[in-house]
Structures are given as structure tokens and as C-alpha cells.
Design brief:
mainly alpha, 76% helix, 8 helices, elongated
Amino acid sequence: MEMNFYILLIAAIIPMIIGFVWYGPLFGNAWMKEMGFTKESLEGQNMAKIFILSYIFSLLIAFFLQFIVIHQGGVFSSILEPGSTELQGDALTYFQDFMAKYGNNYRTFKHGVLHGVLSGVFFVLPVLSIIAMFEKKSFKYVAINAGYWIVTLAIMGGIICQWL
């Protein structure tokens, strides 16, 4: 299965683009209020470090998301011999035939969005909610942050599924 790593690099930019809008003009004031931040309290941070680390973490998310939104990879890993890194013989022939017939099934932006949303709702939302309960954060805090991740994962999933 060929992979275009540039798509993962592009998808990893999505959280920052969405975050700029989400935590800026859309919900910036509400988020700051929920966090107890002021514009002054957010000044003086090393923004280069924050953006570089955010991009690295977003790249990890993009890398993992490909396994959720692209189903054909499951076939590859299912027929790969234990301890091997390449398909050979009958397994290779089977995989090539499978990919020729079904390799483009469910490889659409829309399908990636679906799996991105499902990842946000069934993974990120519960994780954020559990953390928020113990940190005594409000429903609004969860809604703002989970909403961001649901939208972000939807767009990342769509890009990865369509073009990777």
C-alpha cells in the first residue's frame, strides 16, 4: 500500500488552523473565561515552542488517524506473516488482487469525516469529560474543547482518507 506522507504533514496543520478560529473569534472569550485566563495572563509564552510541539503532536494524531479512516490497511496487516515486514508469495498476490478490486472503496473525504467525527464523539469526548469531572470543569468547557476536536478530527480524517 503506497502512502503519501505529505498528506500526513498537511493534515497535521489542521488542528492549528481550526484552533486559530475556534479558540479565537468563535469561542476564544468563552474558553478563556472557562479556563480562568485573561489576555494578559496568556502573554509571555514561548509561542514558537508551543506551535512546534503542537505540530509534532498533531502529526502523531494524523499518523494514528490513518488506521481509523483507511480500512484497507487492516487487510495488509491481517495477511502479513508474523515477524515479516513485506508480503510475499500467495499473500502478496492476494493483497494485490484485493487492492485492485477494493482498494478505492470508502476512500472519500466524506467517509474520513464520518470516522473523524466518530473518533471525536466516542474517544475524545469521553476522555475530556472524565478529566473535566475530576478537575471540576464545566459542561461548557467540555463542549468547547470536545467540539474543537470533533471538527478537527473530521477534517483531518477527510483529508487523510481521500488523499493518503
